[in-house]
Design goal:
The complex is a heterodimer of chains A (about 60) and B (about 240).
Chain A (H helix, E strand, L loop, with lengths): L6 H38 L5 H10 L5
Chain B lengths: L8 H32 L13 H28 L4 H31 L7 H22 L3 H15 L2 H11 L19 H45 L1
Helix pairs in contact in B: 1-7, 2-3, 2-4, 2-5, 2-7, 3-4, 3-7, 4-5, 4-6
The chains are: A mainly alpha (about 60), B mainly alpha (about 240).
Chain lengths: ~60, ~240
């Protein structure tokens, strides 16, 4: 496949697009890992959300 | 699962966790097939091989505008229906839309230099897309600097509705003003003005970009729901301390 006299512009377009998409995927994946880690830490310290607390009480046969 | 059930963030998370791997797989497959078809597509009789930039530039432009459309619907969801996931959807769409608009602007400049002899002109189409990108940056600044998501939600929804005015301006700018940018050649009265050998790979790439948008949007929505959970748990912790 020949890209002709303007190959540099075509390659640069695909390179920039790939870079932006990979950066976006990496950023979203890193953010997910960070939120999961913080949530795990909080749960380990016994911090629960109000809705979760209600469920825990119900599971124990308690009134929340 | 009824659609109304998705208003519950926990149910939405369950659905996203189930759907996301399939969506990501479909995105990768359609991208691979699209790039294969782009490789085999003929050169344009006037532009030569530089037409290959179109397979990135056009889907980038479409998705940049579609993401703002998603944010506009989300804004209505926030202001009118007060849907609990509406602001989450709007916030998650902003960086993805900004990235696609950036791709559109950069690939457009790289296509313009060999074809027009310049990277940039202040014509109506290019300027209105730049305005869209600046609106995205404003939206991101609004979301990222606000401490309380409930406060930023209303302001972001209003900005999304105001910015929505720019979408038809982008679309019709080439008809309303005399521009260096070519007129519409795919979505236009009388059908597409592109030969099928170039149009089909373009539509496959557009589908790939659309799938990528929804994959990233759902993943970013999941992150935002988790971030709000972390925030509410920290507040519970602070109250208990």
């Amino acid at each position: 496949m020949s890209l002709g006299p303007h190959a540099d512009f075509i390659i640069a377009s695909y390179a920039v697009t790939a870079l932006v998409v990979v950066a976006l995927i990496g950023w979203i994946a890193a953010d997910y890992a960070a939120q999961r880690r913080v949530l795990g830490d909080l749960e380990q310290r016994g911090v629960t959300r109000r809705s979760q607390r209600g469920k825990d009480h119900k599971a124990l046969g308690d009134t929340p | 699962m009824a659609v109304i059930d998705l208003a519950n963030p926990t149910r939405f998370l369950t659905l996203v966790n189930r759907v996301l791997p399939w969506l990501a797989g479909a995105t990768a497959l359609v991208f691979a097939y699209g790039l294969y078809r782009v490789g085999g597509a003929p050169d344009d009789y006037q532009q030569g091989a530089t037409v290959k930039i179109m397979y990135l530039h056009v889907p980038g432009a479409w998705l940049g505008m579609m993401a703002w459309g998603v944010m506009t619907v989300a804004a209505l969801g926030t202001l009118v229906w007060r849907h609990p996931l509406a602001d989450v959807a709007g916030k998650a769409a902003a960086p993805v839309g900004a990235a696609f608009t950036f791709i559109c602007l950069v690939t457009g400049a790289l296509w313009g230099r060999p074809m027009w002899g310049t990277y940039w002109v202040w014509d109506a189409r290019l300027t209105s897309v730049l305005v869209l990108f600046l609106l995205y940056l404003g939206m991101l600044a609004l979301y990222w600097t606000a401490e309380d998501p409930n406060r930023s939600a209303r302001a972001a929804a209003i900005l999304a509705l105001v910015g929505a005015v720019n979408i038809p301006i982008i679309k019709f700018s080439v008809d309303w003003w005399n521009t260096l940018h070519q007129p519409a050649s795919v979505v236009r009265m009388g059908g597409a003005a592109i030969d099928a050998s170039i149009l089909v790979p373009l539509l496959i790439m557009a589908l790939a970009f659309t799938l990528l948008f929804f994959t990233l949007h759902f993943a970013a929505m999941r992150n935002e729901i988790l971030r709000r959970r972390v925030r509410s748990m920290r507040m519970m912790q602070a109250r208990g301390a």
